[in-house]
Design a protein that fits this description.
The chain is an alpha/beta fold. Helices cover about 20% and strands about 30% of the residues. It is globular, with a radius of gyration of 23 Å.
Length: about 450
Amino acid sequence: MSSVVNVAKIAFTKLVSTMYFVSSSLGAVGATTPAQPAEEVFTPVVRFAVCSDIHIEEYTDVTAERLAELIDFMYDYSEEQSDYKGFDALCIAGDFTNAGKDTQYDAFLQVIDENLRPETQLITCLGNHEFINTRDYDASLSADMYVEKMGIETNTVYEINGYQFVACSYDSDTGKSYTANSGWLERSIRSAVTKSGDKPVFVIQHAAPFDTVYGSISWGDPVITGVLAKYPTVIDFSGHSHYPINDPRSIWQGSFTALGCGTMYITETNIDGFWEDYPYDAYKTGQFYIVEADADGDVRVKAYDLITDSFFDLEYNLTGLSDRNFEYTYEKMYAKDAAPVFPEGTKISASQNENGETVISFDGAEDNYIVESYKVSLMKNGICKYSESVCGKYMYLYEPDTYNVNVGTLKAGKYTVEVVAVNAYTKVSAPLSYSFTVK
């Protein structure tokens, strides 16, 4: 199924504004973001938001509330801008419902109808969760429900202010891949690239292209990778993994550009190589991108945190994609990082809680990007009694960067605890160590 939707936009007068840049403070992904010369002017001609994995159950639940908050922020943000006040699209890369039930569609559309303005185009696609309700019976019914409820085909192309948006859904036969839709996707991208020239083409779909962004090894789809790899001007937005948007590996450039959209529902990470590792407070999340593009094809991407109503300290500037000017390859990002460092004077302490269990406490380390995890090891007489990786709190802007690790009830004796910080690129800090005695 496919359709082409042309979105007419009112002409506007370009206003001059000087582009601002992200702080280069330690610990910010923006510290390594290529900066444009201060005299350059970035004036958007299109602005949109991209999110994924909302998983709405009903109109009154927190997922619906967060979607409404996202839309409210879109318009608040655009009104504050002096260069261009339009907000042209809201893009959702699948799993906007939790199980594809008609009541969940109704709840989603109620939020949209009550909050999204007519001038803002809604761009969606089917994720795997839209197939859950009917997969055991006839998965094609999921696609039929999408068409009936959304009033559009499952695969669509939009043109907004000279930019092409291609939204591709999961396979209507299996709900697990893009095999059946890959032909449509390639034809649509080829046509979009022809119309766009050197400008980027935005692709919205659910599962990340395999072996690109963080989470794509566990959750990615190789069919998508094979199609997109032919088109360097593609900027692909995906979800599915729920991996944090402010992890530096959530942007990738190689033969094209890919960005993972994080989640509006529950955060997941990949610690020690294991997927489906959920940090504490995992449900307290709401992450999405604000994307702006100018008349020359330059794109600015910023990540927002709904929980604290603030931007993450990062900004991606995508330029010269037709010339394969890829500044965010894994190799380049890796090279710009260094091992995490514990600030001078950082100490470990040990205490007992009311249950007699020992709790190891320490402050977090600093890194050019993020500290992904802390490896906590407890030794007694040269024998390891406890070893665990603890997820860093980099995705929680509201949390103090402090850690309390419960190592359980210990027998009497002398113990040594060691903590090392590990960053996104597996670079390891010098260890912190501390000895204590349990009586």
